[in-house]
Design brief:
The complex is a heterodimer. Chain A is α/β, with parallel strands linked by helices. Helix content of chain A is 31%, strand content 26%. Chain A starts with 22 loop residues before the first strand and ends in a 6-residue tail after the last helix. Classes of the chains: A alpha/beta, B mainly alpha.
Chain lengths: 324, 282
């Protein structure tokens, strides 16, 4: 009965295996009445990767995840999860897929540890519930009824319920919403641990730093459409360049400075003594900039590197702030 | 089990190493998350689900009030008091079958409907639906829990009744068949209610129906106490069939009263068909 599982280490030659993706979504469309929740969404999640669906509230993240979990039926489009149909093959998929719902879904009257033991008892070889609670910082509230847990504790219990059965694929819907920084870091550790050990993770978030830190790939959603996807570094590199600002005596020759910098850099002096360099930011740029200043015997003060963040990317793509 | 060598580099991207956030001993503190999925054997799932449903019901004060305390108080009130006249048989013999029927309605209908309605509201049903446990096991677990509570209720009330002079006739088998059929009919109706109405509406409706059946549904008082025309209609209520069936067994010594059993069977089939058709899990 033991299912074959994804290989834990990639072979040296990637050519030898072509693994089908853990999740494959093509042209998903879903409407609630007149409101389109998803409008032709396509993305793939490779086996063993962490993929973040990023977007503001109402972007369609939860709809996409719940279609993959088999809770909702798309109006159009195709979904394959671990090569199976999430609704038709639900019975085969449920043991292999861990799910963390928004809102948790624990019995309010059950004790924290009791609830996790219940979910563990559905799996063939679950994690030790007590150890898992301990690892998530819930050991001291194992005997506390769910309804008396704080929001962050409930979130972590919900995460524990999603992973206690040793799933291959884990869907985490807003796993860190409402968490304090310590609980957020505990959740991040779990996601990194899952990735370390070869599980596949799909998470939704509207936190940029979370997506940048955790995800191998980010799918940016807005109004039910994919507005960008790629690795965090690809997304932050593409398009508009980064910036370097510094202060120096007014009236430097910005044209010769630009000439001394790598191709494509532009230099301006928006206010006297304040300089702005727009260019892809890399070590070579900084070396050229500080080298030119040294040759001119100019001290560049208050030098700041501003790399583009996913937040900037989102703002540029949608014209809107991400945070609700 | 795990060590530094296990830390992998995937593609071109190293594991994110946080600047301001350290993950000092990730390997040591976290369990090995290597996937190893699988479904537990069905009996284990069923027992676990039944056990938690039972524990939650026994822990819930209002449920105990409804399923145990009110029937016990009613027994004391009706058998020891002289509030309601009987037909001449002993007060315990006259009232006990109806109170046992009321106990079944309390747990199989009202208690189950309210608990399930709030589980639906709080997303518990949805969450459990995402586990490896099939929905049939969830329903089986609920059934076992209801039967467990009924066993407790019937034991407590029977001992109390016997202490008050109850002299039941008939057989345990006949009574058990009626109780099981009554449980099926009322559990089906309770799930239908819980799966179609909002939790708050389920709470109100389940309590209201319980109260109406208590007074006018043949539970406390046999329908023979009502007018003939009313009794002709009300005898087809599941509560009347359940109570009449238990009276036929315990008062008259009937082996298995056919009409009540048939009425309860019909209600069971209709209620479960409707629940399967209209039950919404979220």
């Amino acid at each position: 009965m033991r299912r074959p599982i994804a290989p834990r280490r990639r072979p040296l030659l990637e050519l030898t295996t072509v693994e089908p993706p853990a999740v494959e979504v093509a042209g998903l469309t879903k409407r609630y009445g007149d409101i389109p929740a998803l409008d032709g969404v396509s993305f793939e999640v490779p086996v063993g990767a962490v993929v973040a669906l990023l977007g503001p509230n109402g972007a369609g993240k939860t709809s996409a995840v719940e279609i993959c979990e088999g809770f909702r039926r798309p109006d159009a489009g195709a979904v394959r999860v671990l090569g199976l149909d999430p609704r038709r093959d639900a019975g085969n998929l449920r043991p292999r897929v861990g799910v963390m719902l928004q809102g948790g879904g624990a019995y309010p009257g059950a004790r924290c540890g009791e609830m996790l033991r219940l979910v563990a008892s559905f799996a063939r070889r679950p994690h030790d519930p007590a150890k898992l609670l301990e690892a998530l910082g819930l050991g001291s509230v194992a005997g506390t009824p769910v309804k008396r847990l704080s929001g962050g504790q409930r979130q972590r219990l919900s995460l524990a319920m999603a992973i206690v059965g040793r799933p291959e694929l884990v869907f985490l819907d807003e796993p860190t919403a409402g968490l304090d920084p310590a609980a957020r870091h505990a959740t991040w550790e779990v996601v990194q641990g899952l990735r370390r050990d070869g599980a596949t993770v799909v998470l939704t978030t509207h936190f940029m730093d979370e997506a940048e830190r955790l995800a191998d790939a980010v799918v940016v959603l807005d109004h039910g459409r994919v507005v960008a996807q790629g690795s965090p570094s690809e997304l932050t590199k593409a398009g508009v360049a980064g910036q370097v600002t510094f202060r120096a005596p007014a009236g430097l020759d910005v044209v010769t400075l630009a000439g001394a910098l790598p191709d494509g850099a532009s230099v301006s002096e928006p206010r006297p003594g304040h300089y702005l360099v727009e260019s892809p930011v890399d070590p070579a740029l900084l070396a050229a900039l500080t080298g030119w200043c040294a040759r001119q015997d100019v001290l560049a003060e208050d030098l700041r590197v501003q790399r583009r963040s996913l937040e900037d990317v989102f703002l540029e793509l949608t014209g809107r702030e991400l945070r609700p | 089990m795990t060590g530094p060598g296990k830390r992998r580099v995937r593609g071109n991207q190293p594991l994110p190493v946080a600047g301001d956030v350290a993950f000092p001993d990730l390997d040591a503190r976290l369990p090995d998350f290597t996937p190893d999925p699988g479904t537990a054997p069905l009996p284990r799932m069923l027992l676990a689900q039944a056990a938690i449903e039972l524990r939650l019901a026994l822990r819930h004060g209002e449920q105990i009030l409804l399923t145990l305390i009110i029937p016990v108080l009613l027994t004391l009130l009706l058998v020891l008091g002289s509030l309601v006249a009987t037909d001449g048989s002993s007060r315990a013999d006259y009232f006990l079958p109806g109170i046992l029927a009321l106990a079944v309605v309390s747990s199989a209908f009202t208690g189950l409907a309210i608990a399930t309605g709030f589980e639906r509201k709080y997303g518990v049903l949805k969450r459990l639906g995402a586990t490896a446990m099939p929905r049939s096991v969830l329903l089986g677990g609920k059934t076992l829990a209801v039967l467990g509570i009924e066993a407790l209720q019937l034991a407590v009330l029977s001992v109390l009744g016997l202490a008050l002079g109850w002299q039941p006739r008939g057989t345990v088998v006949g009574a058990a068949v009626i109780v099981l059929l009554g449980t099926a009919a009322f559990a089906g109706l309770g799930l239908l209610l819980a799966g179609t109405l909002r939790a708050e509406a389920t709470l109100a409706a389940a309590n209201l129906v319980w109260f109406l059946l208590l007074l006018g549904g043949g539970l406390l008082l046999p329908l023979s106490r009502l007018s003939d025309s009313a009794a002709a209609v009300l005898q087809f209520l599941p509560s009347a069939a359940l109570a009449d069936g238990l009276r036929a067994v315990f008062q008259d010594g009937s082996a298995l009263p056919a009409q009540p059993a048939f009425i309860l069977l019909a209600w069971s089939v209709l209620a479960f068909a409707a629940a399967v058709r209209w039950f919404r899990w979220e």
